[in-house]
Design brief:
single chain; alpha+beta; four-stranded antiparallel β-sheet; elongated
Length: 380
Amino acid sequence: MMTLIRNPIVRAAAVIAVVFTLANPALTQQRGGGGGRGGGQGPVSVFAEPVRTEPFSNRVEAIGTLEANERADLTLSASDRVTAVYFEDGERVKAGKTLISLAQREQSALVEAAEATLSQARQDLDRLSPLAEQGAVSKSELEVARRNADSAAAQLRAVQSRQRDRVLVAPFDGVLGFRMVSVGSFVRPGDVVATLIDDSVMRLDFAVPSIFLMNLKPGLTIEATSKDVPGRTFKGTVASIDNAIDPVTRSVRVRAMIPNADGSLKAGMYAAVTLLTEPRKALSVPESALQPLGPETFVWVLAKGDDGAVASRVKIEAGLRQSGRVEVMSGLQEGQRVVTEGALRLREGAVVKIQDPAMLKPKAAARTGGGGDPAGANRE
């Protein structure tokens, strides 16, 4: 039975109260005890994920310069005219490949003369050895013949070494730069004829503040990016740490090695470096599960109850944030389920219904044969 309100002021207030109540369903739930035990509303729908172990590490950022693992300015130790060049600019070569040859006629003649001298000395030694055993020649004559043979052998090795100096070979695997000579050029000892670098592995030198010195050690993982190679992240390891701290910048030099099998990285590139220190395994939850309240942090943890899963608020100690997840220092155990979506409607002891996370993923539009309506068209 409805009561007729005659006072216009009271009647207007009553209408406003009804409109405000209908526009605020949360107020209706509070009055009716919605979302909890004994209320008129059903379980609160939430999304949840288990607490799991993830790798974490502290990140130190720096800027470094890339250099080739090995670099050599190729020179010859003899003076003469170039008779042959066996490489082209930018060619990739193997260790031991012949690159340049100088004129060999005079040196070849010296080698032949030394070989002839050694052959004669050995013949004299072979002739005197049986005579010395028979006492036909003195031991001193035999010693002189043996010394002559050894001297001739040493002389041959010397001229052969000088002959090898007239041929330039690659000292290690790598890629050559521009060649600085041509056939017919006259070179002198110390003249650079080409540059060879080993770019299969690149050195990355960078400075780290000395406050991180105790956390630095060989073997730590680094990640490097360069604007010259956009969209790629290169991983490497710390190879060595300098033995002194710069007194001006209060930093220590660190050298890392980065594999460069495809040759994308070039010497001289600048790279942004992320050094991963103190690698560890720790419990983690998604960032969306955190409920900060002043200086403290809470999460909603689900446990089995009489009517289903029940939510309870648990205080945790949060640590490092990394890739959308938060390190949990204390307060949780592996395998516990925490609420990631829908936590704003929860209260202590509320019964919840866990939804399938797959429902958040967009569904692919069904394809129909023939020409249908364009995607996003309104349909009656």
